[in-house]
Amino acid sequence: MTETTAAAATTRPAGAEDVPTRVLALGMVHHDGTLLAGELYPVAEACGQSGDQVRSCLRRLVSEGLFTRTGEGRDAVYAATDEGVRALSSTLERTRLAYHQDASGRGWDGRWHLVAFAIPESRRGARDAFRDRLRELGGAAVQPGLYVSPHRWEHDVVAAAEELAVRSHVSTATSDTLDVCGTTDPRAIAADLWPIDEVAQRYRAFCDAYRTIPETLEQMRRDRRRLSEAEFLPGSLIIGIKFAECFNADPLLPPELLPRPWPGREARDLLARSRRISVLLREQHDKPKLFAPIDDVIDTI
Question: Is 268 contained in some domain?
Fold first, then answer.
């Protein structure tokens, strides 16, 4: 890969077809859950997004109940609702969990955490929403109405059940052993219940596409070259989106249940190194606002 392609992974101009405006908007949300239109529009423009695309995205975020708006146009301030905070917090917590497991090389207490539910047909909408929430939390179906996770997810499960008013139909349990259709080996169970091979293939494809980026950026640093915001922002967004395509499909199983070496760890390390070096190469010396909360999570690991 050439140096120019390199600036890269992080630098090639992004067309509208490359950059989901929603990812861009959510990546600009502050720690307190606020999104400032005056900050979003210039970054969107640098990423090749039109004002109409941004306005349409912001309207959707409000109509979906994720944000409320005060003010108009570029002076508008968007505040995350409870549902919006939950969605944003979920991304940060998943990021924290993933990098913590990578750093420690472990993450399992050896216990399976089970959730059983029997929500009546008259509450089908709530039942479907609860099932979706269990999947979002990384759970897998053992059989209809019975889900399992290797993580301590009881707090989040109960919160979801209470939010959907189905708590009286949900039970939880933990077990040191689990027998799934005659399979008791933990790694074999994990391979049967979760799409580990598919997730691994996605991560390998990401690594193949971006593996040379850190070294190319390091060469730019040695040559004392700098990245303008017009280079840094679109590239950062693109590599973030490509990583998210892998990460969002990852149930984040603990290392004890995964094949080794696990390509997800390499992909996260690749993303973090590319991000850190590209930030150092920026012409702007302030901390970039795009993906700032995620930067903070990674920096604490």
Answer: yes
The domain containing residue 35 runs over which residues?
A: 13-80
In a domain, 28, yes or no: yes
pLDDT tens digits, 196-234: 999 999 999 999 999 999 999 999 999 999 998 888 888
Same domain, yes or no, for 229 and 252?
Answer: yes
pLDDT value for 195: 97
| pLDDT at 15 (0 to 100) | 39
In a domain, 6, yes or no: no
pTM, two decimals, is 0.84
On whether residue 153 sits in a domain, the answer given is: yes
Report the domain count for the chain: 3
Strands 112-117 and 140-143: unpaired
Q: Using the structure block, give the residue that is written with the tokens 């219940």.
A: 193
pLDDT of residue 230: 81
Whether residues 97 and 126 fall in one domain: no
Our CA angle for 277, 281, 286, nearest 5°, is 100
